[in-house]
Amino acid sequence: MDKNIIDSSGRLIPLKYKIPKERIGIEKTLKIKGIISSKSLFSNAFKIFLENLININDELKEDIENFSSRKLTDEKKLETLIEGSIDRVVDQEKKEKIGEKGIKKIKAEILIEFKKMRKKERMEQFNKIKDKSDSMLQLLADFNENRKEDIEVFVIKDFYICKNCGNLISINRFKKTNCPCGETINKIKNVDKGSISLLDDNVEMFFKKDFWLEYGIDYMLQKNSFKTFCGYSFLGSSGVYHEIDNMAQKSSKNKRVACECKNKRLSLKDAIIFNNKIKDLGINNGYLITTSSEKANIDIEIFCDNSNIKIIDSVLEEKEEIENIFKKM
Ligand SMILES: [Zn+2]
User: Fold this and answer.
1) Ligand 1 centre and the CA of 294: distance in Å?
2) What is each CA distance from 190 to 129, 169, 236, 267, 315, in whole angstroms?
3) What is the extent of the structural domain holding 48?
4) Strand 241-243 to 285-290 pairing
5) Does any domain span residue 165?
6) CATH number of the domain that 15 lies in?
7) Model pLDDT for residues 281-300, shown as the tens digit of each residue
8) What's this model's pTM, rounded to 2 decimal places?
């Protein structure tokens, strides 16, 4: 038989499946493995920790983008600017008094001051990036300590910065180059090195797409003797594949269930789409699960009631409820 078919020794109809590209391999990466096996995954503490982490990480990425893309003012243009302002402020009579040498000296001094200021500003910008990165490290360390966990979520990136002007030279690998400030960068001592921690790409996707919630439900189902498939796509009778957050079956009881997980308030659209999917797959036990404590509105309730879909809200606070449902099946 095709190995991409789930079947059962009982009375369940076989189902053909595909694993969506973005899911392939994700469970096997060490960091995700650690998160999935964490006992804190299915908890409000984890949700809050995640939200904080994602917020800081998003800001950090934007700051890094700004820092990397900022161009240095062209040296020649700068000199013209200084010359122009000297011309405006100092009239001919004064100029003669100061003398050509004096004017040159003033120009040079303004240029030095400007460069100092520019470097200071860029280093301040970089230090802000560092502070944000440090605050994420602290957040993770606190979480791990409080929950007695040992999860890892970051990648470390090394930033190489021109010592002369504060310009970003390269990330992760030291490169020889000419800095726009005029400095030749060919020795490691020409740069300052700073390490920044960011969320690992897989981890970011795992968090942002709410896979963490799906794996939390997956764990609940497994705990209650279900064989589970998290995030697979299944072929419906219409000839179309449908992605299902949690598909699970208990062959001995001829039971198959599908869950849709939302980390936000449910909408009628969510309910209708989910209903269409599971009916096309021939599944009669559907669960619409949400972390939101806001009660679903009456339209959604009526629709789900008439479609044999159960709504479970505040799922992180009321784990026993879902646990009992899965246990009794
Ligand atoms: Zn430079």
Assistant:
1) 54
2) 21, 10, 62, 57, 55
3) 44-199
4) unpaired
5) yes
6) 3.40.1350.10
7) 999 999 999 999 998 999 99
8) 0.85
Q: Mean pLDDT in the chain?
A: 92
- Left if phi > 0, otherwise alpha if psi is -120 to 50, otherwise beta: which for 215? alpha
Q: Starting from the edge strand earliest in sequence, which strands make up the sheet with 241-243, in order?
A: 5-6, 15-18, 233-235, 241-243
Length of the chain: 329
If you measure from the C-alpha of residue 83 to the centroid of ligand 1, how many angstroms do you get, rounded to a whole number? 23
Model confidence band, residue 134 (pLDDT cutoffs 50, 70, 90): very high
Question: Residue 39 — φ and ψ, nearest 5°?
Answer: -75, -10
pLDDT per residue as tens digits for the range 225-265: 999 999 999 999 999 999 999 999 998 899 999 999 999 99
Domain count, the chain: 2
Report CA(199)–ligand 1 centroid distance (Å).
Answer: 29
Neighbours of 125 (CB within 10 A): 14
Classify residue 142 by burial, with Cβ atoms within 10 Å: 0-12, 13-18, 19+.
Answer: exposed
Report how far ligand 1's centroid is from the alpha carbon of 72 (Å): 9
